[in-house]
Each structure stands twice: as structure tokens, then as C-alpha cells.
């Protein structure tokens, strides 16, 4: 019998998750039905109940619902609690169990696929929303050096730093301070500025040097402005979020089905298509 899975978000029609999970299911010989469900935050609770009533066994959650999903779970993994955000729901009896696979997905992509050694890297995290919260704990666990968090709304950066709870290692700075912070070994863009059609405040060149890696948690067109800026500054690596997307999906798949899929093939397919999209523009 086919089991029901879905990704909830708003908007979500562009999501690659249905395709990635279909490929994983085929590879593992597991019949799964995985759809994309567009729902605004105000309707999320009801939509999730409806999904469960129709036999929903698990779901991914994307923007802007990850913090709402965390609040709806009756229990969560430690990594979800540390993030205060859930991207993976698992039906457990009458309740939802919540996990967050974003951080492990990002770290796996950066270390195993991109070959980066994250240890002791002086790191700048731009943004303090659900995506930033999802990846910050895993970056600290992966051994980065000092972590600086900068967000348009400083109170959210403060809240993230408080949650991470490593005052000597995690620092909050204002956007206006960026030009005084010097060079970083790793700069991650976890904001939705490009996707929302807004323009991110101009970033100073001094943030990136020739050994720096720049990472966008977005992929496709939303990743282009930040990564183009990073390349223009001569960053050593400029990496989009496509690999993280595939790796977090594999981790969710493993939670639901008890088997870890191989990610190289679907990553290769999506990477080739994304290269064609960028070239065609
Ligand atoms: P996500 O779950 O992807 O993190 P989110 O929780 O809505 O989505 O967070 C979006 C992030 O992008 C936030 O850090 C947001 O800054 P605020 O906390 O100040 O809202 C940031 N962001 C969005 N548009 C931006 C813009 N035009 N300039 C700077 N930061 C922006």
C-alpha cells in the first residue's frame, strides 16, 4: 500500500521535494505518494489535521511554517529543540513527532560533497529566521570557530544566540557593524531577501577573502545575487543550497522509511538542470 507524505509551505509549488522523494522511493523500492500542499500559517494546523485524517504518515515543512510546526508537535528531537524549528514531521499514533534535518543536511553537503573542513572557521551567519535556526546548532557541532549572527531585526539574532547558549563563541552584531568585523572563513546567507524580492543591504567587500567560502541556503534564482556578489569578491567557494536540500531530504527519508538513500544521482540530475536554467537566463 502506498503511504502518504507531503511538503507543506507557502509558496510551495516550486518545491523539488516531491521529485527528490519520488526518486528515493524508486531507488529503495518503496511505493510512496508525496505531494506539495500550499498553506498559509493561519491554516496550517487544520491542513495538517486533514492530512493526518487522510492517512498522512509524514511531512516536510518549509517556509514560512517551520517554527509553527515546532509548536504543533507533541514531542521533538533534541536537534529540533535546539533549532526551535521543525522541517520533518513523523506521525506517531495520534500525534506528530518533530525533527529538524536541515543542519545535518547542510553539514553533510559542505563536508562530504563540497569537501570543506569546517573546523575552526570564523563564521558569519546572515539571518535569524527558521532556516538560520535550523543550521546554527549543527555548524557549532561541526566545530566551526566563532559564530557571528547578523539580522535585520536584531531581537531575532539575540533570541537565536540565547538559544544557542555559547556566549564566548556566539556573537550578535548589527547590520551597521558588518564593515568593522573583518574577514570570515565562512559566510552563510540564511535570509530570504532575494526570494522576497527585497534587496539585501549592501555587504562590504571586507567580509570575504581569497580563502573564504560563501554559502547560500537557497537554490535557483534566489541564490544568485548573493553568490554572484561572493564570486565578484573572489571567494574561494560559492555554494548554493541544492546539496543541502537533497541531503536534508535523505535524512527525512531515513527517519520515515528506515533506510538512507544514495543522494548522488538525484543531486547530479538537479545540478545539471539548474546549470541549464542559469545559463538560459
Ligand atoms: P526562514 O525560515 O527561511 O529563515 P523567515 O523565518 O521568514 O524564513 O526568516 C527570513 C530571514 O530573512 C530573516 O532573518 C529576515 O530578517 P528579519 O528577521 O529582520 O525579518 C531575513 N530577511 C528577509 N528579507 C530581508 C531583507 N530584505 N533584508 C534583510 N533581511 C531580510
Automatic annotation (TrEMBL):
SDH C-terminal domain mapped to chain residues: 241-270
Known catalytic reactions: shikimate + NADP(+) = 3-dehydroshikimate + NADPH + H(+)
Cellular component GO terms, alphabetical: cytosol
Database matches in CDD domains: NAD_bind_Shikimate_DH
Family: Belongs to the shikimate dehydrogenase family.
Protein task: Involved in the biosynthesis of the chorismate, which leads to the biosynthesis of aromatic amino acids. Catalyzes the reversible NADPH linked reduction of 3-dehydroshikimate (DHSA) to yield shikimate (SA).
NCBIfam families reported for this sequence: aroE, PRK00258.1-2
Name of the protein described by the UniProt record: Shikimate dehydrogenase (NADP(+))
High-level lineage: Bacteria, Pseudomonadati, Pseudomonadota, Gammaproteobacteria, Lysobacterales
Gene: aroE
Amino acid at each position: 500500500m502506498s503511504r502518504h507524505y507531503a511538503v507543506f509551505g507557502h509558496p510551495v509549488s516550486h518545491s523539488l521535494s516531491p521529485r527528490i522523494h519520488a526518486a528515493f522511493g524508486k531507488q529503495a523500492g518503496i511505493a510512496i505518494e508525496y505531494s506539495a500542499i500550499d498553506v498559509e500559517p493561519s491554516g496550517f494546523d487544520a491542513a495538517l489535521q486533514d492530512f493526518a485524517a487522510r492517512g498522512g504518515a509524514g511531512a516536510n515543512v518549509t517556509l514560512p511554517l517551520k517554527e509553527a510546526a515546532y509548536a504543533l508537535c507533541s514531542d521533538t528531537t533534541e536537534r529540533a529543540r535546539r533549532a526551535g524549528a521543525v522541517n520533518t514531521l513523523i506521525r506517531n499514533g495520534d500525534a506528530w513527532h518533530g525533527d529538524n534535518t536541515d543542519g545535518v543536511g547542510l553539514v553533510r553537503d559542505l563536508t562530504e560533497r563540497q569537501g570543506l573542513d569546517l573546523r575552526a572557521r570564523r563564521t558569519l551567519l546572515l539571518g535569524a529566521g527558521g532556516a538560520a535556526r535550523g543550521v546554527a546548532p549543527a555548524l557549532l557541532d561541526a566545530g566551526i570557530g566563532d559564530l557571528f549572527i547578523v539580522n535585520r531585526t536584531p531581537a531575532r539574532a539575540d533570541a537565536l544566540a540565547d538559544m544557542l547558549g555559547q556566549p564566548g563563541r556566539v556573537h550578535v552584531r548589527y547590520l551597521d557593524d558588518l564593515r568593522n568585523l573583518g574577514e570570515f572563513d565562512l559566510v552563510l546567507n540564511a535570509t530570504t531577501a532575494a526570494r522576497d524580492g527585497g534587496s539585501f543591504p549592501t555587504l562590504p567587500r571586507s567580509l570575504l577573502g581569497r580563502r573564504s567560502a560563501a554559502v547560500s541556503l537557497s537554490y535557483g534564482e534566489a541564490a544568485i545575487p548573493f553568490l554572484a556578489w561572493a564570486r565578484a569578491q573572489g571567494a574561494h567557494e560559492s555554494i548554493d543550497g541544492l546539496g543541502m536540500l537533497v541531503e536534508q531530504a535523505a535524512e527525512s527519508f531515513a527517519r520515515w522509511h528506515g533506510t538512507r538513500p544514495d543522494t548522488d544521482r538525484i543531486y547530479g540530475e538537479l545540478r545539471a538542470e539548474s546549470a541549464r536554467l542559469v545559463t538560459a537566463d
